Amino acid sequence: MHDEPIDPFNGDPADPTAGLDDPGDDATPDPLTDVERQDVLEDLADLEIYQALLAPIGVRGLVIECEDCREPHYFDWDLLRGNLRHLLNSGRPRVHEPAYDPDPDHYVTWDYARGYADGVHDTLTEGTEDEPGTPTATD
């Protein structure tokens, strides 16, 4: 009795999957380029800001449109941070599955989070920059 299905092509020289990489292979992937590495580091830094601003208002994480399956994937803050760190350390993304029955109202896109952070930044710095024609202490 087998717990898993028997491979019908086991030992077959015409196995159609023979040329595919085994996920268990210890083959080292190509390392990230300097530009890719910098992009991941910037994403990690941005993620910290987004979480600090959005978690207190009930946002649980980010939603990303998957290029492979064309479905939205919902990631909580810690999972997304872990995925980015894994990519940084291993050079390859983790295998992903869509979340089970997430509430889309609790997730925002990267673009929304970026816009929200920019809006908060602009609000906090509004009026602190010298505007042309505004008298200064030395005038």
**Beta-strand percentage?**
5-15%
Task: Tell me, rounded to a whole number, the average pLDDT.
Answer: 81
Q: Give the overall shape, derived from the CA principal axes.
A: elongated
- Content-based structural category: mainly alpha
Distance N to C terminus: 91 Å
Q: How many strands, which pairing sense, and closed or not: the largest β-sheet?
A: 3 strands, mixed
Low-confidence stretches: none
Report on this structure.
It comes from Micromonospora orduensis. This is DUF5319 domain-containing protein. Residues 1-33 are annotated as: Disordered. It holds the Pfam family DUF5319. This protein is mostly helical and 139 residues long. It has a domain at 34-122. It is 37% helix and 9% strand. It has a three-stranded mixed sheet with strand order 2-1-3. A hairpin with a 6-residue loop joins β1 and β2 (72-76). α1 (34-54) runs antiparallel to α2 (77-90).
